[in-house]
Design brief:
Strand content of chain A: over 45%
Order of helices and strands of chain A: EEEEEEEEEEE
Largest interface: A-B, 26 and 25 residues
Structural class of chain A: mainly beta
Oligomer: heterodimer
Number of helices of chain B: 0
Number of strands of chain A: 11
Number of helices of chain A: 0
Shape of chain B: globular
């Protein structure tokens, strides 16, 4: 079974630029999560989708972050404009539904300079 | 919302000894408690989980216990090996709010 795919693996941008991350979840998984993980901390949930609907986006900085899940499968997370404090690893995860274990991709390491 | 605390933040054990990591949660609605292992440069990997209707679950050298009354759960690793060295995260969810603890860095010394 293929795992969660994320791209790119690494990205370096200047502050105020925009960036987008892509995620392809495990086939058949209805729930998709985006997490932000700052070095030395636990993952922080940014947004949770159930199919193509948003379940929780309470910690998503909506003035600069946006996310969508196309046709309930792939998802993209965008940051515009980026700030220095956005430097982190962005993790995508998927699960059968909200009450099951989430499986993570390898993440995208974003560096904002 | 849910808040998950985790202790200790770092843990060093000798190879072959046991390691215990403890977590507490705040939301009594949480009913699913997974544990993740994260190695450098990789995403978290699910290693074991427990649901609120179960008090203990074991998988080879790893076990998890849950005390719903006290709202705490623990990860137990026996006969530790160098490859167990990693950061471990606990998490709690009610199905709609998946919250992680801050992590425990486990070092297994040969």
């Amino acid at each position: 079974e293929a795992g969660v795919a994320q791209s790119p693996r690494y990205k370096i941008i200047e502050k105020r630029q925009s960036v987008a991350f892509w995620c392809n979840p495990i086939s058949g998984h209805a729930t998709l999560y985006w997490y932000q993980q700052i070095l030395g901390q636990g993952p922080k949930l940014l947004i949770q989708f159930q199919n193509n609907g948003v379940v929780d986006d309470s910690q998503l900085p909506k003035d600069r972050f946006s996310a969508e899940r196309l046709k309930g499968v792939d998802s993209t997370l965008k940051i515009q404009p980026a700030k220095l404090e956005d430097s982190a690893v962005y993790l995508c995860a998927s699960s059968l539904s909200g009450g099951y274990g989430a499986f993570f991709g390898q993440g995208t390491r974003l560096t904002v300079v | 919302g849910e808040n998950v605390e985790q202790h200790p933040s770092t843990l060093s054990v000798q190879e072959g000894d046991s390691a215990v990591i403890k977590c507490t949660y705040s939301d009594s609605a949480s009913n699913y408690f997974p544990w993740y292992k994260q190695e450098l440069g990789k995403g978290p990997q699910l290693i074991i989980d427990i649901r609120s209707n179960v008090g203990e679950k074991k998988d080879q050298r790893i076990a998890v216990t849950l005390n719903k009354t006290a709202k705490h759960f623990s990860l137990h690793i026996t006969e530790t090996q160098p490859e167990d060295s990693a950061v471990y995260f606990c998490a709690a969810t009610d199905g709609q709010n998946f919250v992680f603890g801050p992590g425990t860095r486990l070092s297994v010394l040969p």
